């Protein structure tokens, strides 16, 4: 189980590395914002902690964690969208040139 | 494998693929927005999949948290002026990392304060709390600097490197001890507290202008913390999204410091052990 998890981790990390190299400077900030939203994936762990009803402490911590992670996810995606909307029209011609 | 389990794993698999596709699309201006939407759908699927988990018996608090978080997250996302973007990312980041930290603490607490935790699981939990906690305070200091609540210039004092070094070493020593001897609650909570202090000491010596690079690096740490959560609770979507985030955040922070004509090591100067700087 743990070894398999390690495989998954290393391979996913490698994919992350491959996917991101060669990102244009222009997209640095939106990409940072988007990966920030994705890091809200800790919401998945938080939901389990909040709903498993193992102890009061865990439920309280889990509920706070769900709240925090949701702020991260909702705010993160909304802000990225706003950012991308802003320069979408301006950047289109440039992107076609590149092709 | 039950049908329910199968369904959960299927949503996780699709979510992971969507995260990868989304990140890829995000690296080209023409497809960036679509990429973001793919990632958002992936996140939604991951959440729905998790809600199907049979471990979850009580939905009230989950719904409360989701509602509260959305109510706070929506204005944060919609009404913050564009010029305040970096600090908004910093604060949102702090929340994400705090979630990972709290989950780590509750896991440790649930397992009889470490009594029922194996060595490998303790390593994952310790890692999660360590990286989570230092990201929380690190992001908060970054937010303070960007918002100009704190002076933007690097804050340094005599003997700072020595003090930071000792702090860091003690924290790591506690972590190692915990892996060897998981049933030591005081070491766990002390490590968590010290990790918060490490986050402050990492970011305080760095100037406000370099904050975006630091933010991206903290992003990578938060990703690693999420991955560690995945190891601790045996959840692949957490491992994958966390690893994607960890790797891409790291590469992005190197790319950003290059774009700013700063050497990566230089930005982190004073932050000990910047591991790879010749990438």
Structural summary, described in words:
The complex is a heterodimer of chains A (99) and B (279). By secondary structure, chain A is mainly α. Helices cover 84% and strands 0% of the residues of chain A. Chain A has helices at residues 2-20, 28-38, 42-51, 56-98. The model of chain A is unreliable at 91-99 (pLDDT under 50). Chain B has 279 residues and is mostly helical. Chain B contains 10 helices and no strands. Chains A and B meet through helix 1, helix 2, helix 3 and helix 4 of A and helix 1, helix 2, helix 3, helix 4 and helix 8 of B.
Q: Helix/strand/pairing class of chain A, anyone?
A: mainly alpha
Q: Residue-averaged pLDDT of chain A, rounded?
A: 83
Largest interface: A-B, 86 and 98 residues
Structural class by sheet pairing and helices of chain B: mainly alpha
| Rounded Rg of chain A | 18 Å
The total count of strands of chain B amounts to 0
The N- to C-terminal Cα distance of chain B equals: 43 Å
Order of secondary-structure elements of chain A: HHHH
Write the H/E string of chain B, N to C: HHHHHHHHHH
End-to-end separation of chain A in angstroms reads: 43 Å
For this structure, the quaternary state is: heterodimer
Unreliable stretches of chain A:
91-99
Annotation field: number of helices of chain B:
10
- Proportion of β residues of chain B? under 5%
Gyration radius of chain B, to the nearest Å?
A: 19 Å
Keywords (chain B): Cell inner membrane, Cell membrane, Membrane, NAD, NADP, Translocase, Transmembrane, Transmembrane helix
Function (chain B): The transhydrogenation between NADH and NADP is coupled to respiration and ATP hydrolysis and functions as a proton pump across the membrane.
Catalytic activity (chain B): NAD(+) + NADPH + H(+)(in) = NADH + NADP(+) + H(+)(out)
Domain NADP transhydrogenase beta-like (chain B): 9-279
């Amino acid at each position: 189980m743990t070894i398999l998890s390690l495989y998954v981790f290393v391979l996913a990390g490698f994919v992350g590395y491959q996917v991101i190299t060669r990102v244009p400077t222009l997209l640095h900030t939106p990409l940072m914002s988007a990966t920030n939203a994705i890091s809200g994936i800790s919401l998945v762990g938080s939901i389990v902690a909040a709903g498993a009803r193992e102890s009061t402490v865990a439920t309280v911590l889990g509920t706070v964690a769900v709240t925090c992670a949701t702020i991260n996810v909702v705010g993160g995606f909304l802000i990225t969208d706003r950012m991308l909307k802003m320069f979408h029209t301006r950047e289109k011609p440039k992107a076609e040139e590149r092709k | 494998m039950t049908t329910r389990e199968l369904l959960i794993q299927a949503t996780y698999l699709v979510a992971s693929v969507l995260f990868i596709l989304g990140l890829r699309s995000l690296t080209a201006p023409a497809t960036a927005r679509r990429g973001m939407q793919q990632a958002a759908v992936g996140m939604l699927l991951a959440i729905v999949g998790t809600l199907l988990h049979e471990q979850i018996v009580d939905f009230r608090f989950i719904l409360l948290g989701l509602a509260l978080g959305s109510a706070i997250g929506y204005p944060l996302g919609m009404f913050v002026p564009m010029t305040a973007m970096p600090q908004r990312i910093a604060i949102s980041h702090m929340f994400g990392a705090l979630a990972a930290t709290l989950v780590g603490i509750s896991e440790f607490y649930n397992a009889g304060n470490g009594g029922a935790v194996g060595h490998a699981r303790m390593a994952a939990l310790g890692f999660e709390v360590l990286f989570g906690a230092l990201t929380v305070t690190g992001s908060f200091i970054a937010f303070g600097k960007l918002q100009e609540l704190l002076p933007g210039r690097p804050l340094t004092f005599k003997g700072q490197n020595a003090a930071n070094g000792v702090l860091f070493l003690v924290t790591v020593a506690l972590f190692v001890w915990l892996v060897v001897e998981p049933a030591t609650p005081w070491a766990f909570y002390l490590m968590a507290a010290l990790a918060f202090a490490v986050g402050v000491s990492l970011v305080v010596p760095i100037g406000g202008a370099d904050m975006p690079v630091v933010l991206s690096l903290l992003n990578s740490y938060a990703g690693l913390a999420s991955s560690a959560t995945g190891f601790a609770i045996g959840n692949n979507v957490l491992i994958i999204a966390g690893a994607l985030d960890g790797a891409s955040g790291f590469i992005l922070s190197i790319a950003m410091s290059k774009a700013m004509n700063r050497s990566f090591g230089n930005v982190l100067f004073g932050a000990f052990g910047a591991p790879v700087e010749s990438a």
